[in-house]
Amino acid sequence: MLQKVLAEKRGKFVLGYGACALAGGLWGTGFFFGKIALAEMGVAHMLFYRFAFASLVLAPLVLRHPTRFKPAEWRTLLLASFLGIPLQFMVQFYGLSLTTVSHASLMVGTLPMLMAVAAMLFAHEHLDSVGWVALAGSTIGVALIVLGRKSAAVGGRGPSVAGDLLVVLSLVIALGWIFLNKRLMERHLPVVVTAYGVLSGCAMVVLFVLLTRGIPPVHGVSGKAWLALISSGVLCTASTTLLWNWGIHRVPASRAGVFLNLEPAVGSLLGVEVLGDRLGPFAWVGGGLIIAAAIVLTTRGHSEVAAILE
Question: Could you say which residues of the chain have pLDDT below 70?
């Protein structure tokens, strides 16, 4: 009997970790697909299609899981959706349009650092000496990437300080989305918060784009761009959020958080190997520092990052 219980628990952990790992890997392809689409349309229209395709996947979940948010919860949901979708992604992908996939992906590696700082400031979490060293290393890594931007992408725009820092700014904005969603998930299922949040954010994107940029292009968009847009919506948005929320409800968030580091690793490798980005020596060292610091912050017991994720 005990062996059966242990086997079931082990299987639950394997599936949970697998879901988190798959989510982290798919998130890492977001900038890659985004860059392909941005070659044929602006940031606003690219995001319009990305979230439209994501909504097609998540809409049935709203019908299957009807819920009644209180007025205050609706306000929290809408604020979280605004921060996490139109505002965060507009800033982030405008930054991507000014820099390379590799640089943008490595900057995403600062998210655990930002979450740890937020936990310190707002959740009164204690940061020990090792944590402080990790934060310092991550900060130095960002500085090395930004200052060592002599590399250039083959056949395209090279990295820029403005683009790199806009990606970091988008992650700061994302913290508000994470905090607010955590509050909502204390009373509602993660799948409900995810579905309603993404659909609300998509509606905001659609309204903004139609009012400011007009109807997005249809004719003249290549098959490669359409495939990138569909992949961005289905794989990098809908599937990742569902996989991640499903996974962290089956394994300790303090351990699952390490899979967040797959995003900068996969993204930067795709940029170098597929798009021909060139990382200078400072960028390689800086990226290594950021990822190493993120691993330290997300694997040391009940970390500051876990305080926000859980």
Answer: 1-13, 119-120, 122-127, 146-157, 248-249, 251-261, 273, 276, 279, 294, 297-310
CA 9 to chain centre: 29
Q: What is the pLDDT of residue 132?
A: 73
Say how far apart CA 85 and CA 92 lie, in whole Å. Answer: 10
Whether the CB-CB separation of 248 and 306 falls below 8 Å is answered with no
For 150, the 3-state DSSP assignment is coil
Determine the pLDDT at residue 159. 75
Residue 169 half-sphere exposure toward CB, CA atoms < 13 A: 15
User: Tokens standing for 288?
Assistant: 């290594």
161-184 and 88-98 helices, crossing angle to 10°: 160
To the nearest whole percent, how much of the chain has pLDDT over 70? 77
Residue type, 53: F
Domain contains 135 = yes
Domain count, the chain: 1
Cα–Cα separations (whole angstroms), residue 201 to 11, 123, 181, 235, 279 = 35, 27, 13, 17, 34
Residue 11 lies in a domain: no
2 in a structural domain: no
| 15 occurs within a structural domain | no
Two structure tokens written together for 220: 């003249």
- Give, rounded to a whole angstrom, the gap between the first and last alpha carbons of the chain: 30
Q: How confident is the model at residue 190, as a pLDDT? A: 77
In terms of residue numbers, what domain contains 195? 23-309
